[in-house]
Amino acid sequence: PTMFEVRSAIEIAATPEQVWKHVVSFSDLPEPQDWFFRAGLAYPKRARIVGSGPGAIRYCEFSTGPFVEPIEVWDEPRMLRFRVTENPAPMHEWSPYAEVLPKHLHGYMISKQGQFQLTRLADGHTLLEGTTWYQHGLWPAEYWCWWSDAIIHRIHLRVLAHIRTLSEDDASGLRSSN
Predict the structure, then answer these.
(1) Which one, of 4, 16, 42, lies nearest residue 158 by Cα?
(2) Which of 7, 39, 46, 126 is most buried per CB count within 10 Å?
(3) For the segment 46-60, what is each residue's pLDDT rounded down to a tens digit?
(4) Facing residues of 115 across strands?
(5) How many angstroms separate the CA atoms of 58 and 82, rounded?
């Protein structure tokens, strides 16, 4: 299948050094308000990491389970790149049964790799870009990538906005204590 790329960016009023720790792992995100996440599409909840540097394992925990992300590039505070070795289901299937594992939810949207790139801006802020490379088995691919790209972009924005909030809260705490 074709490899697709989705890139999203956000400006953060904090230095790359202040942002970095929230890229590597972050606390619980608030529950989503977007209707499509509330209707069952998987959404990010938190991220944690075991170890540091290349070879560490990052777990980006979604509402349907964790993405397992072995770190390939750890260039603090500029870039974190990882492979994705395990993907959870892309959504919770609505059903009157306690747990349903339908085959149509597996193997049709597979995240392969991701990265966060941090760029220091002239004003001391940081441009944080999140990128996901993925494949899917839906046909026609060009039609379905419009939908999958939009969903992945919303997931990126959810995570990037949370990282911005955490980083700016830290930065403002440092400014007020000086």
Answers:
(1) 42
(2) 126
(3) 999 999 999 999 999
(4) 81, 131
(5) 8
Place of tokens 């993925």: 134
Mapped onto helix, strand or coil, the DSSP state of residue 30 is coil
What the block records as the tokens of 99 is 């747990």
Residue 122 tokens read as 């002239």
Question: Whose structure tokens read 């494949």?
Answer: 135
Tracing tokens 């001391």 back to the chain, one arrives at 124
- Tokens 């990126």 belong to 156
**Token pair in block for residue 42:** 């998987």
Q: What is the pLDDT of residues 101-146, one digit of tens each?
A: 555 555 667 899 999 999 999 999 999 999 999 998 777 878 888 8
Q: Which of 153, 147, 145, 114 is nearest to 1 (CA)?
A: 145
